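Many introductory courses stop at the sequence. We go one step further.
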Amino acid sequence: MGDDREDNLGPRLGKVENDEIEIEFVDVDDGPAAAEEPAPSTDLAAVADEPADEDEVAKLQAELDRVRDVYLRKLAEFDNFRKRVEREREESRRFGAEDFIRDLLPVIDNFERALQHTNDESGAFRQGVEMIAKQLGDTLARRGVVEINPIGQIFDPERHEAVQRVEDPSQPPGTVSAVMAKGYMAGDRLLRPAIVGVTVAVQGRGDAAGGDS
């Protein structure tokens, strides 16, 4: 019986040995199902980023609100400062005019006293008016006002206003030969230019000289 078993298995084993056996190795990690399935760590990271973005937006909004509040407060403070400066400037201008008028009141009083002696022939009236004029000049000088009396000076268009042409051969052309109204300056500012007459070349002088020769 043992021999019959060997006879029956012999050809069968021989056939197996002669046939080619193909073995296919399959990588289970590279399959389509594995490629489509996302990694758990990636999902956790995406979920963790959402609260962080909301916190950042909230911080930025809070900072924006703070900056806007500071800006509005500074704007209000600047507006109050501007109004206060304008009010102080107006008060200073008004009080300065009041002080100046107060300084002129004694001058007005003296003018009224002088007018009471208009019929005096002793010369007291003229002397009184001259004293008042000096008092007025001193009052203006204390305020920093300087008069411009350019008689005999060269005409300056920045400080003088010419309203008359004067033919005066004794003075060179462009000389102030008459002052109709004195000018005044306050520091470096011109309050009023001097109203003057300016000499010009005498007409016909050149023709006369040519005829004599």
